[in-house]
Amino acid sequence: MKDVLVVISDVIGEDPAPLHRQLAGPVSAALAGYTEDMYAILAPGSLEYMRRALPSEEAWKDSDGAHMSISLESLARIMTSLSFDPEVYATLRDAMTRRSAQEFAAAPRSKPQETLSPYPPTTTVWALGTMAAVASAARDRAGKDRRGEWEEKTFSRLSSKRPGQAPSFEDDPTGHVVATWKSPPSLGPTR
After folding, report:
1. 81, 5 in Cβ contact below 8 A?
2. What is the C-alpha separation between 132 and 4, in angstroms, rounded?
3. What is the SS3 assignment for 33-81?
4. In 86, 125, 128, 189, which residue has its Cα 20 to 30 A from 40's Cα atom?
5. Which residues, 6 or more positions from 180, have their beta carbon under 8 angstroms from its beta carbon?
6. What is the pLDDT of residues 66-92, one digit of tens each?
7. Can you tell me the distance from the alpha carbon of 38 to that of 102, in angstroms, rounded to the nearest whole number?
8. For 143, left (φ over 0), alpha (ψ -120 to 50), or beta?
């Protein structure tokens, strides 16, 4: 996968243009399968991923499995090129949302106050903030005449996966966080 991403990064250069539709779908589906790696690249703090981001660095294995890394800038440009297609953006966004929710669900809480550790919110802001920047760049580069269509298709795709009711945190912590994030805000009790 790293070799594919390095080639795409070289081809698109500094100014990402849309990848051909027949290529964008399969590449985004494959990239969504590397959610752990994408998250580690987008969220600061992993020295291993930073150290191995150079194109000449090979993929590696550790006790958690196989990994690959590229630079944050390359990954953001590649995701922008892929995301000219709203369906592709939604696939990548769903993957990052789920991975970010896993961080929140696994976060340690202090017992006396039941407060959340500051680490997961900080890292997930980077990952999801980058996804928001990718959306903005892809939408803006689509042009004024297609911007509304891109937003409508993306919103429709992302909101179509909303679950009816959030699973309990005890049964499915990640699913609970994702469902809570996708729920419309509550305005409090109605009379």
Report:
1. no
2. 24
3. CCHHHHHHHHCCCCHHHHHCCCCCCCCEEECCEEECCCCHHHHHHHHHH
4. 86
5. 166
6. 999 999 999 999 999 999 899 999 999
7. 14
8. left
